[in-house]
Amino acid sequence: MPAATARVVLIGPPAAGKSTIGRLLGDRLGIPFTDTDAMIVAAHGPIAEIFRTRGEARFREIEREVVRRALRRLLDRPGVVSLGGGAILNSGTRAQLKHPAIKVMSIEIDEETASARLHGSHRPLLADEDPVERWKALAEERRPLYESVATATVSASNDPPSTVVNRVVDVLTGLQRAENYAKFAAEDEAAGDADGGYAEDGQRTVADDTDADDTEGSDEA
Ligand SMILES: Nc1ncnc2c1ncn2[C@@H]1O[C@H](COP(=O)(O)OP(=O)(O)O)[C@@H](O)[C@H]1O
Ligand SMILES: O=C(O)C1=C[C@@H](OP(=O)(O)O)[C@@H](O)[C@H](O)C1
Ligand SMILES: [Mg+2]
Q: Residues 138-195: pLDDT tens digits?
């Protein structure tokens, strides 16, 4: 995955590991990491406090502004941005996430994993008698929104953060390869190479050092 072009956003329900995985991914790729909740806390104080004194609607307004800036900056330079679980509730945020330069990784966990991670959680939306039930309802309700903006989905249940990061890097590498191939094919087409580099019998006619030895009739065979 060439870090120079990586623009990655992590979305998903609370406790999926967006903040944890995002930080490790930024380190791995050597590009800046931004956690929009941390930016909110730095500017406005603890999230639970914002919910308590100003209400969820005001929190969502503050969140939208912070996310808008973080995603704009992501277009100026590579980076990893972890959003809060509810950021995708905003249609403007969802529209920004549709930018083709941005890869949106939806981090998924199952109910058992969430249950193991929610003990002692300070998330105001899960400060309920039954936080796991509340989490399930939130995750289910938001699922269509996560799916509507996700470039790919990565499972984070039952695996340590390092494994999840590897999985994200693998997905990003695959996406990059597909993009490079599409670019190559488009350039090839534009250059007027009507057979796309293949002869009628399917043999590659463009020089390619990776499979030269496998070519039937090759001098080296
Ligand atoms: N893959 C993982 N395996 C085990 N624990 C994890 C993993 N990812 C995150 N955690 C833990 O789960 C909790 C929630 O992680 P966090 O990164 O804050 O999630 P999010 O930002 O999605 O709400 C934290 O205590 C974190 O240390
Ligand atoms: O799901 C949500 O609506 C929220 C998730 C939290 O972030 P994490 O998803 O990082 O826990 C935080 O933004 C706030 O408590 C609201
Ligand atoms: Mg987080």
A: 999 999 999 999 999 999 998 999 999 999 999 999 999 998 888 888 888 888 865 5
Is 204 flagged in the annotation as binding? no
Domain span at residue 57 reads 3-176
CATH code of 107's domain: 3.40.50.300
- ipTM metric: 0.99
Rounded Cα gap, residues 116 and 16, in angstroms: 11
Q: Is 77 annotated as a binding residue?
A: no
Atom of ligand 2 nearest to the CA of 14: 9
Mutation test residue for ligand 2: of 37, 59, 89, 136, the one with most atoms within 8 Å of CB: 37
- Within a domain: residue 75? yes
Give the H/E segment covering residue 108. strand 103-108
